[in-house]
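User: quick one, fold this
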Amino acid sequence: MKDWRSLALGLAFAVMWSSAFTSAKFIVADAPPLTALALRFAVSGLLGVAIARSMGQSWRLTPAQWRATFVFGLCQNALYLGLNFVAMRSIDAGLASIVASTMPLLVALAGWAALGERQRPLGIAGLAMGLAGVAVIMGSRISGGVDGVGLAYCIAGVLALTLATLSVRGASSGGNVLMVVGLQMLVGAAILALAATAFEPWEVDWSVPLVAAFLYTTLVPGLLATFAWFVLVGRIGPVRAATFHFLNPFLGVAIAAVVLGERLGLLDLVGVGVIMAGILAVQLAKAPAPSAPRRTAA
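Assistant:
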């Protein structure tokens, strides 16, 4: 990739996105997960809209942008992150990040099985490798006594994230990118606030780690990473942008291990490596083949 700005943006997105699971672990330890997440999205969304307005962006979006903004707010913010926040009360942040990192594989699988998209042999091999890596990790964790309900929430969340990713293209076209980011966060905040009111009490154990993690999660993975993703898709397209997701399994477990002290077994490391290779193979198979140079007449 010769576009160094896009490369730097993609790497920054991968680090920010992967760190969200670790910071979320601090939040759910001391606060109700859905309420905390609703408040996070309300703050991030209002801040994003305010910055967008100061930049001259309009909330007069195209119909495609409005549809994608609602779907993204519902599926990524409310369902994917809501389910993951609840799940991380009982499972490791590293495991949640591994499950979430399979999203590019699920997008490719959905395109192949449901939408009739053709896959090259490299892409089919990548899908098989990725699924094998997931099977290795899940088998190891289930035999080790992982909470089944929490794991099921993570799986349901990544399915919702897959649907959100399929809708991102409509949201990133037509300009007003930061406005779209802010509005889809407000959609998620509204849905999560209703769910929090219905299902969880307001019990908060205030602490410095809780406040620091909330501010970090709100501003960095919440606002900056989402904005970086939309900009990256706009610069290099969804296929090339999704290549950076192959870093997320490693970064997610590495950050959780360093910050939270979570232990990783040998099968976890093997599974992460296989998933990374599978994601990269799927994305490389989607990339257009380089055109042959034209010959000039002698």
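User: anything notable?
Assistant: Residues 291-298 have pLDDT under 50 and may be disordered.
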